[in-house]
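Task card 7
Instruction: Convert sequence to structure tokens.
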Amino acid sequence: MGYIMDLRKVVGHRTLIQCAASIIIENEQGQILLGKRTDNHMWGYSGGSIEIDEKVEDCAKRELYEEMGLVADELEFFMINSGPEVHYVYPNGDEVSNIEIIYICRKYHGEIKKQDEELDELRFFDIDELPIISPPIRPVFEAYVRMRKETL
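Output:
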């Protein structure tokens, strides 16, 4: 069931500190793979809560495979996303203060396949044509777009 879901049984919707790991998939054309979430109908990269004693990198890879069907061959640390701007209330009322470790992955394999419970759609986007991004990860996209434009 998962650590966070177990805690929710005890604390209900109260704010939890949620440590997560995520991956931004970048293809050879420089596009990024995003999934449209089923809960808030906004877009984001793969990621999720770290389980007890799970390595951060293993969590990021697990979430990528579960949500998007891909296996990360190499991870590059990108940033940590935390602070009041990433405090989030999910549509079901669950509240979290996020601490998220984000990686970029350019080398991966597998068949792109969405996790039906969490994602309505998967698509690659150019960084200049990003859709509406889920609120708690907007600071990551702002930093990512800045970084990409600096390297062009």
